[in-house]
Amino acid sequence: xxxxxxxxxxxxxxxxxxxxxxxxxxxxxxxxxxxxxxxxxxxxxxxxxxxxxxxxxxxxxxxxxxxxxxxxxxxxxxxxxxxxxxxxxxxxxxxxxxxxxxxxxxxxxxxxxxxxxxxxxxxxxxxxxxxxxxxxxxxxxxxxxxxxxxxxxxxxxxxxxxxxxxxxxxxxxxxxxxxxxxxxxxxxxxxxxxxxxxxxxxxxxxxxxxxxxxxxxxxxxxxxxxxxxxxxxxxxxxxxxxxxxxxxxxxxxxxxxxxxxx
Length: 262
Fold this sequence. Notes:
Blueprint: E1 11-16, E2 22-33, E3 38-43, E4 50-55, E5 63-66, E6 71-76, H1 91-99, H2 104-110, E7 119-124, E8 129-133, E9 139-141, E10 145-149, H3 159-174, H4 180-187, H5 205-210, E11 221-232, E12 236-245, E13 248-258
Antiparallel strand pairs: 1-2, 1-10, 2-11, 3-4, 4-5, 5-6, 6-7, 7-8, 8-9, 11-12, 12-13
């Protein structure tokens, strides 16, 4: 089994201005090796406006928000042929966006794409979101609708992306209010995709299939946490997280606050 290039294989499905009660609903899974040290979501001591989990190796994060409503989320771009030696940590991208007050366009244009191995970054606010990756290096404004991002480009029709988008879209079309438990259940879908539907990203068929569910569980790698972020029309933000250990639910926590002016 070839595990090269499978670090932080997250899934981010989100609804942007596609529900009459909520500007933004994010339903995301973070996948990582079980042994990588991680802190659960919290307000950071060194950056008290940031609410996010934290990678304790590089001190970055994969998804976070601020009290003033900045939001950012990251996935890697799966390509085992990309060199990783000498590259900066991708988790610093989310951290650095959240800690600055720069406009998203300014932040993105200041990035040196070659400093990082392949990444996808979604960043902005519940009113305006941007997408950028350092493969084609194009910055785009995210349109209203339901979207999905895994480890290729935004809305690439991988099985887990399509399933996640469809399930979130169907759930939101049928519910006025959010039931966090039901959305977490959607994120816990561990059904593997059919081999005929799998992408070929260079990690081998066996591992492609193991990585194909929304919720991944292998002997030493899998879904470490699930996160829901929701912002309603009155700018009330909910951040909910479930933390898993070896594929087993260990803890759940929910944060609520009203977004303040920067």
